[in-house]
Every structure is written in structure tokens, then in C-alpha cells.
Design brief:
With about 450 residues, this protein is an alpha/beta fold. It is built from ten helices and 17 strands. It has a single domain (about 1-440), classed as Alpha-Beta Barrel (TIM Barrel), CATH 3.20.20.80. The protein has helices at about 1-15, 55-65, 85-90, 115-130, 155-170, 190-195, 230-235, 260-265, 320-330, 430-440, and strands at about 20-25, 25-30, 35, 40, 70-75, 95-100, 115, 135-145, 180-185, 210-215, 240-245, 275, 290, 305, 310, 315, 375. β11 (about 240-245), α8 (about 260-265) and β12 form a beta-alpha-beta unit. The structure holds 2-acetamido-2-deoxy-beta-D-glucopyranose (NAG) (2 copies). One of its GO terms (biological process) is fungal-type cell wall (1->3)-beta-D-glucan biosynthetic process.
């Protein structure tokens, strides 16, 4: 007993020594009172949980530390697995985690959304599994669920998921883990979606952060010619933290990651909390920062080989992308503001957007779906305190945005490009379907 008590205490001292992180106003702060900016990477080696192999995590965490990363985003985890070794390996490297709560079988469907206790319990199990780690930064209730106008009726379900997971978090007396959403960068929907998910005046029903998967900046590029000036104009004094949950356009390549200078530069740094680069592992989509070996025959099968790429082993930097990012991140050290001097009253909640016939279909501050409710068409009931018009939204099935990708500056690499990734879930619906086809 004494021995195990001693080793438990010793373990608690060496691992998980990072300050915890919470959101206030539009910023993240560490428990030491410093503003926290994300320099992150998407980390998903196969569709399976990558946080179960301590040796692999240790190898990857070490090189991520060299890269200058302080956050990983993981799209799929198994709540029943043991994550202690990997979470300690990342904590030792100063790296926090952002975890997607949904799975291939529980994510909110874009066309026929429902939100029920099966989903809530599955998301809660992930929250439970990661609640004990100091380097758990936050959680996503969804990734790129809405990619077309006729899918905007899923937005109240995203809010319902956030509402119920935040209530679960609080009932369990967990830390105030920020719980947010990761959006596809759809020019016609993004402004309404980001405002809708944070509007209505009841923080219990709003997301704690808004994150954007954006491939608008393809090097060489400038702030004014990219879409970032427009993104920035909509992020000024946003009510919750906003950051890039995927970025790193690889057209035409090599990637210079000059957008990091914009995101952390004087025009954006007061409103954004950083960026996660897509992605750690090199695979067929060619977004990798590292590889575990040269490509192999796509039909090859073998341990740790899937889809023509080795998925474990010693990480080797992809040149020149890895060093380009490392060099840029090394020059970026924003100090931000101290929580003791930060006044969150600067931020402003926007009105709930009103619907338009073929655009955003959720009209104002609608009543959120209850747990168990399925969307059966038509419109949602406006609440008594609706800030928008009460004209019912009609569901126009044929409505689609004029473009489903980013502005013209980035014709090739919008979030819906089908070949973007194999393991992650970040290519919108098409990506989801691809993953289903390949892996299930
Ligand atoms: C939730 O919905 C899914 C899909 O229809 C269904 O399989 C599951 O049984 C539902 N859960 C509950 C508790 O009704
Ligand atoms: C805010 O939302 C929560 C969760 O839906 C609800 O229980 C609460 O009554 C709401 N508060 C107000 C003032 O409407």
C-alpha cells in the first residue's frame, strides 16, 4: 500500500504539471493568468484513437516540441481506452489536447439532424475519460456538420449538444472545459453560423468557442489578398474565443505558413487565439508535417501500413514544410493580456441572424431541440425572447450556397475537397463518407 501510494504521488508530481486553461470573454487564459495562444497540429494517425500508444506519443510529442507546437487536435478517441501514458507524454512536452466528442456513428447529421441520449452519453463518456488531465484544453461537439444552406437547420442541434454537454460538465463538477464547434469555411454560412451559435443571451446554451477550418490562405499570399481581412472583420470583439481549428493550404506548395504571421500579427492577434495546422502525418492528401517512412504500395497491407502510408514509427520532418513552420513559430511569441487586466466587457454578442429564403434558414433565437428531438422539416418555433424576425423559415431543399469552398483565391483546397484526408474527419461530409467507405 505504501509503495503504491508513494508511486501514485510521485507520478502525480511528474506528469500533468501544466497550468489548466479556461475561456473568458474572447480569450483563453492559463491558471497562471497568462493569455494562451494555440500553435497546434491535427493529430490522427488512422481513424483509431492515437492516444493509446505511449511510445508513439512520446516520439511524436518530442518532435512536436521541437516544432514549437503546444496543442494537438484529435478527431477520434476511444473513451474506454487508457490514455494516461499519452496524455503524460504530451503534458511533458507542454502540449494540450482538443478532442472531438463525436464518433462516426454519433455525429449530428447535416440533413436529418437529431440529438438524443445515445449521442449525449457517448459524448459524455469522452468528456469523462479526459476530464482528469490538466492538459485537456477543450472539446468539440461537432466538425463541419454544416456545409450547405439546406443543412443550416442542424445548427440548433449543435447548440443543443453544447447545452447538454456543458450541463453534464457542470453537474459532474468538472473544470470549466471550453466546449465549442469546428466549422467549415463556407462564405455564405459562416457569418450567420458563428453569430447564431453564440447569440440569444443565455451562456448555458451557447458554445464556449468558435473554431474555423479554413484553407483560404495559400502561399504565397498577403493579408489583404487572402480572405483573412474578411474573417477578421467578422471576428472583432467576438463574444467567445475564435481560432483556426485547421489551416495550412498546400496549393501549390511548399507551404510557407505565412498566415501565422497574420494570425499572430497586429491586425488579428487581439481577436484570435491561434491556429492548428492540418496535419501531423503525411498521407495521400499531402498535408503532412512529418512522415513515418516513404510511401508504399497503396494496396500493401502490413502492421502500421494503411492507405499506402506507414502510420507509426519514428517521425521524420517533411521538407521544407516542417522547418518552414518551425522557423515561423519560433519568431511568434505573443504576450497577449494578463487575465488580471483583461476586461471581457469589450466583447459583444451579436443578434441571432434572421433567415433568408435560400440562405441561412434558422430564423432568430429559435427554441432549441430537446434531448431526443428529431428534425422533421419545417421550421423551429421562435422563442418569446427572439431577437430576430418571427417569419417562419421555409426549408428549401434545393438551396445551396453558390460555392461550397472558400473564396476564389483558393479554388482547389476548400474543406469539401474529397481527397483531403484519410484519417481525419475534416473534409466535410464527403470526407466523412470517404472514411466510412474506406474504413467501415
Ligand atoms: C438515437 O437515435 C439513433 C438513430 O436514430 C438510434 O439508433 C438510437 O437508438 C437513438 N437513441 C435513443 C435513446 O432513442
Ligand atoms: C438558459 O438555458 C438553460 C439551458 O437550456 C435553461 O435551463 C435556463 O432556464 C436558461 N435561462 C434563462 C434565463 O432562460
Amino acid at each position: 500500500m505504501r509503495l503504491s501510494w508513494f508511486s501514485a504521488v510521485a507520478g502525480a508530481v511528474t506528469a500533468n504539471a501544466l497550468p489548466t486553461i479556461t475561456a473568458t470573454g474572447n480569450k483563453f487564459f492559463t491558471s497562471e493568468g497568462k493569455q494562451f495562444f494555440m500553435k497546434g497540429v491535427a493529430y490522427q494517425l488512422t481513424p483509431d484513437d492515437p492516444l493509446v500508444d505511449t511510445e508513439q506519443c512520446t516520439r511524436d510529442a518530442g518532435l512536436m516540441k521541437t516544432l514549437g507546437a503546444n496543442v494537438i487536435r484529435v478527431y477520434h478517441v476511444d473513451p474506454k481506452a487508457d490514455h494516461d501514458g499519452c496524455m503524460a507524454a504530451f503534458a511533458d512536452a507542454g502540449i494540450y489536447t482538443l478532442i472531438d466528442l463525436d464518433t462516426f456513428s454519433t455525429y449530428i447529421l447535416p440533413q436529418t439532424p437529431y440529438w438524443n441520449s445515445t449521442q449525449r452519453d457517448a459524448y459524455a463518456a469522452v468528456l469523462d475519460a479526459f476530464s482528469k488531465y490538466d492538459n485537456s484544453l477543450g472539446f468539440f461537439v461537432g466538425n463541419e456538420i454544416i456545409a450547405e444552406a439546406d443543412q443550416s437547420m442542424a445548427a440548433p442541434y449543435i447548440k443543443a449538444a453544447a447545452r447538454d454537454l456543458k450541463a453534464y460538465r457542470d453537474n459532474k463538477n468538472y473544470r470549466q472545459f471550453p466546449i465549442g464547434y469546428s466549422a467549415a469555411d463556407i462564405a455564405e454560412l459562416r457569418p450567420m453560423l458563428q453569430d447564431y451559435l453564440t447569440c440569444g443571451g443565455n451562456a448555458s446554451e451557447n458554445i464556449d468557442f468558435f473554431a474555423l477550418n479554413s484553407y483560404e490562405w495559400c502561399d504565397p499570399q498577403t493579408y489583404d489578398a487572402s480572405g483573412y481581412a474578411n474573417l477578421q472583420s467578422m471576428a472583432i470583439d467576438f463574444p467567445v474565443p475564435i481560432f483556426f481549428s485547421e489551416t495550412g493550404c498546400n496549393q501549390p506548395g511548399p507551404r510557407l505558413f505565412d498566415d501565422q504571421n497574420a494570425i499572430f500579427g497586429p491586425k488579428m492577434v487581439n481577436d484570435w487565439s491561434g491556429a492548428l495546422i492540418y496535419e501531423w502525418i503525411q498521407e495521400a492528401n499531402n498535408y503532412g508535417l512529418i512522415s513515418y517512412g516513404p510511401p508504399v504500395d497503396p494496396t500493401a497491407v502490413g502492421s502500421n501500413i494503411e492507405g499506402g502510408f506507414t502510420r507509426k514509427g519514428m517521425p521524420t520532418p517533411v521538407s521544407p514544410d516542417f522547418n518552414n513552420l518551425k522557423t515561423i513559430w519560433a519568431t511568434i511569441t505573443p504576450s497577449g493580456v494578463a487575465s488580471s487586466t483583461y476586461d471581457p466587457k469589450h466583447v459583444s454578442t451579436r443578434a441571432c441572424p434572421t433567415s433568408t429564403a435560400s440562405g441561412w434558414l434558422v430564423d432568430g433565437n429559435v427554441k432549441l431541440p430537446t434531448l431526443g428531438e428529431t428534425f422533421t422539416g419545417g421550421s423551429f418555433t421562435p422563442t418569446a425572447s427572439a431577437t430576430g424576425s418571427v417569419t417562419p423559415a421555409t426549408k428549401t431543399g434545393s438551396a445551396a450556397p453558390s460555392s461550397t469552398t472558400s473564396p476564389a483565391s483558393n479554388p482547389a483546397s476548400g474543406p469539401a475537397s474529397v481527397n483531403k484526408e484519410l484519417a481525419g474527419m475534416s473534409a466535410g461530409l464527403l470526407g466523412v463518407m470517404l472514411v466510412f467507405t474506406v474504413w467501415l
